[in-house]
Prior knowledge:
- The protein has helices spanning about 95-105, 120-140, 145-160, 170-190, 195-200, 205-220, 220-240, 245-250, 255-265, 270-280; strands at about 5-10, 20-25, 30-35, 40-55, 55-60, 65-70, 75-80, 85-90, 110-115, 115-120, 165.
- The model has no long low-confidence stretch (mean pLDDT about 90).
- The chain has ten helices and eleven strands.
- The chain folds into two domains: about 5-165, Regulatory protein AraC (Jelly Rolls, Sandwich); about 170-280, Homeodomain-like (Arc Repressor Mutant, subunit A, Orthogonal Bundle), CATH 1.10.10.
- It has about 280 residues and is α+β, with helices and mostly antiparallel strands.
- The longest helix has 19 residues, at about 120-140.
Amino acid sequence: MSHLKDQARLWKPEALDGLYLFKAEFHDFAYSRHTHDEFAIGVIEHGIQKFYHKGQTCLAPAGSIITLNPDEVHDGRAATHAGYRYRMSYIRPEMIQEMLTEWYGSTFSVSHFNHPITFDPQLSKRLRDSLRALEASERDPGNLLESQTCFIQTIADLFTHHGAPPHIPRRVRKNRDAISKACEYIHAMATEAISLENIAGAVGLSRFHFLRLFKETTGLPPHAYLIQRRVELARQSIEKGSPLADAAIEAGFADQSHLTRRFKAVYGVTPGEYRKAVAF
Length: 280
């Protein structure tokens, strides 16, 4: 165990809608496997991060760019005792689509990244500098326009040089349609006590077939997906100003301590720390 203290901050900048920013230095903390609704794009500033992605263990050294698509299962931890420090942006897909369409026109077809780690020294430096500038603009709004411009241009260039067009085999598309309906059911019933039979029945599959197909398609078992949905509901309640205990119960958790454990395993900060960050 390291004697150095883990520290992290997650916040929602006023400058750009559809965006969350995060910075952390971790030595002992480890994320559980989870997904994000957003693109997770960031840069390792120091050390090496190790994480699971599509059945493989990936190593992201200092200077590498993290390029994770929405709904891709991953975790994260330090690869060495020295720990690692990094900055991330979590960007809604709609914001990415609007950005690329307005920037390049409606024919621009890039929609995702093929690799979770991208090596591009020039873009890495630009991304690091723009993320630092966005944080600095909170204290000094004088550089807000420049920081916004640099960040948007960097993200657009990252997709241009390293993005890929969509390609989904027919069989996978069919599976995704069924699982998409299951995810919709879980979203609608997230605060209720639901069973495997409930979800499988809602999409017309046997529970055993559904369970295998759901994990193959999403990378998570249904109960983990449900917990993550509840964490997201609690996050939304916290942003609206709900007390933490109320946010926990309303999202379907047994109590606030249960929410705290699950929230930090996904976002790297506690609900209380997040509430302070979004209290404008």
